[in-house]
């Protein structure tokens, strides 16, 4: 069975999460090394805002890609 890139949007989300959060991974590791509980790390302003930006960016990319493809198909067939 062939695997298509649009079959599983979670693959894109994982990639984008890693790409966006890579700059804050070191900060996260410092918090963990100090023994800070994970819930406190995730609710800190810096990390929470980065998580929110990542999720909103991922949703935007996932929703915009199919809409762009549909728009291109409509424009292509209109010109034919």
Question: What would your notes on this structure say?
Answer:
This protein is an all-alpha fold and about 80 residues long. The chain has four helices and no strands. Helix 1 (about 10-20) crosses helix 4. It is rod-shaped and about 65 Å long.
SSE blueprint:
Blueprint: H1 9-21, H2 25-33, H3 38-42, H4 45-79
- Indicate the overall shape: rod-shaped
Would you identify the regions where 5 or more consecutive residues have pLDDT less than 50?
none
The multimeric state of the shown protein is single chain
Distance between the termini: 33 Å
Mean pLDDT: 76
Helix content: over 70%
Q: How many extended strands? A: 0
Question: How many helical elements?
Answer: 4
Listing every helix as H and every strand as E from the N terminus to the C terminus, the arrangement reads: HHHH
Largest sheet: none
- Overall radius of gyration: 18 Å
Strand portion, in percent? Answer: under 5%
Q: Which class of secondary structure composition applies to the elements?
A: mainly alpha
């Amino acid at each position: 069975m062939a695997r298509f890139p649009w079959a599983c949007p979670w693959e894109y989300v994982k990639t984008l999460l890693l790409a966006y959060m890579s700059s804050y991974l070191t900060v996260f590791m410092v918090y963990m090394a100090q023994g800070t509980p994970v819930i406190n790390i995730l609710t800190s302003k810096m990390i929470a805002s980065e998580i929110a930006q990542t999720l909103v960016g991922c949703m935007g990319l996932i929703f915009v890609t199919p809409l762009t493809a549909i728009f291109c198909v409509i424009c292509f067939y209109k010109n034919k």
